[in-house]
Amino acid sequence: MAEPTGSSLLPGLTVAVTGASGNVGTALLRALADAGVTEVRGLARRRPPETAPYAGVRWYTADLGTPESEPVLAEFLDGVDAVVHSAWALIPDRDPERLQRVNIEGTRRVLAAAAAAGVTHVVHLSSIGTYAAGPQTHPVNEDWPTTGVPSSQYSRLKAECERMLRAFDAANPGTTVTAIRPTLVLQPDAASEIGRYFLGPVLFPAARALPAPVAGVVAKVLPLPIPDLSIGVVHADDVADVIARALDRRAGGAFNVTAPPNFDAAGLAGALGMKRVAVPAVVLRTGMQAAFLSRLLQIEPGWLDLGLGVPPMDTTRARTVLGWRAKHSGGDVLRDFVAALGAGHGGEGPLLHPGTGPEHTPA
């Protein structure tokens, strides 16, 4: 939450959040509750339980991938000051038409409803995935091209959403438009759900069911690609903090969000207490493609291309404009997440529940 700077805008705002029961959405509900926001509205495909931070939120249910969501959106956004659009269908990669309906047409519906309702601040949860491939040696700022990595379906969709956002910005000069571009967003409470998302309903339970001696050996090695990669992670609460600060200051434009340090392959393995096994990227990609086609893996190999292609990010703008700094180091986020994954944490809550609707895990 942003420190007070004279008079804070947040307590007087009515804020609507799409994807409000997801990874970032849940963290944002916590931040808005702490800030004393006047009214928070949440949109999801299913209503979460009346427990913190979901209790006290005015809930609406809709599938943004269908035209039937349009009257719900009109009511959802009627009279609100700001909308944070964090809804996103991450899977199934093998159903591109479904992803197009929810992510592209759904975003189009949210923007159209925001314009019709006269919402004065639109915040879109974008991603590092919107960036074009670039150097792995130095961070880039928000001016880096947002044309995406063509072989990654996720990246293409994120880049298309930002094109729509720019068109919306040009057509609505009275509305502040903000794009939040985080790297991989993690939190321990969502560990099992994220694991199921990426490994799928076959590989994830199989990995959890390995005998202890075998699991102990597997857990000490980490196959990582050659050439090297560069990856950052950030805690969901730190992403929520950026969004809350942008709402509080009504700050427009794009903001990169990541936590130090940025990991190369050796650093990533070291942070996890594992040994790196170098594998040519083409071998990893071929294996991912085979697993994807055989339905053992839920994510397409374009995710590997994205990880190898996108450059590290410079967060100077978030620091100078919003006064933001990550409270959680990347190493701590990774270690806590992996520990929670191994312990099976996060299985009972609504966070990122597979197959239930548009939620969001940026990468």
UniProtKB/TrEMBL annotation:
GO terms for cellular component: cytoplasm. It comes from Modestobacter muralis. Gene3D superfamilies: NAD(P)-binding Rossmann-like Domain. InterPro entries: Epimerase_deHydtase, NAD(P)-bd_dom_sf, NAD(P)-dependent_oxidoreduct. It holds the Pfam family Epimerase. One of its GO terms (molecular function) is aldehyde dehydrogenase (NAD+) activity. Residues 15-257 form the NAD-dependent epimerase/dehydratase domain. This is NAD-dependent epimerase/dehydratase family protein. PANTHER family: NAD(P)-BINDING DOMAIN-CONTAINING PROTEIN-RELATED (PTHR48079:SF6), PROTEIN YEEZ (PTHR48079).
